[in-house]
Design goal:
Largest sheet: 4 strands, mixed
Order of helices and strands: HHEEEHEHH
Strand content: 15-25%
Shape: globular
Radius of gyration: 14 Å
Number of strands: 4
Mean pLDDT: 87
Low-confidence stretches: none
Number of helices: 5
Number of domains: 1
Length: 121
């Protein structure tokens, strides 16, 4: 999959990688190093977005949302639709879910990674 991200977005992604939230750091500990059998990338520039986590092999995007997303629901829905049209499945988790229900979040991601015909969400 060819990524057409511009240089500004690439710089933004690098900054975000260095400044991940606590929830993103915790989730990254479970995703990195192919622990689920596939490679995930973090803070990945795609089109005009920076995706929190993505598995390009499975076309799976994982977004970790904080409180600011309550007020940005329309934007998030638009973003999800754009990603769906590009062939991705999008999983969204709240920061507090990742921090307090880490095992359940990891199990849901594992299920999606191991589905033969993933549903779009």
């Amino acid at each position: 999959m060819k990524n057409a991200a511009n240089e500004t977005l690439i710089k933004t992604a690098k900054i975000l990688r260095k400044n991940m939230t606590d929830a993103e750091k915790k989730l990254w500990q479970g995703l990195r190093g192919e622990q689920l059998g596939v490679k995930f990338r973090r803070q990945y520039p795609f089109q005009h977005f920076v995706l929190d986590f993505v598995c390009l092999e499975k076309l799976l995007v994982i977004e970790v949302d904080g409180g600011q997303h309550v007020e940005a629901q329309a934007y998030d829905m638009h973003r999800t639709e754009v990603l769906k049209k590009a062939g991705f499945t999008v999983l969204r988790f709240w920061n507090n879910q990742v921090l307090s229900e880490t095992n359940a979040v990891m199990e849901e991601i594992w299920r999606r990674v191991n589905q033969e015909n993933p549903e779009t969400s």
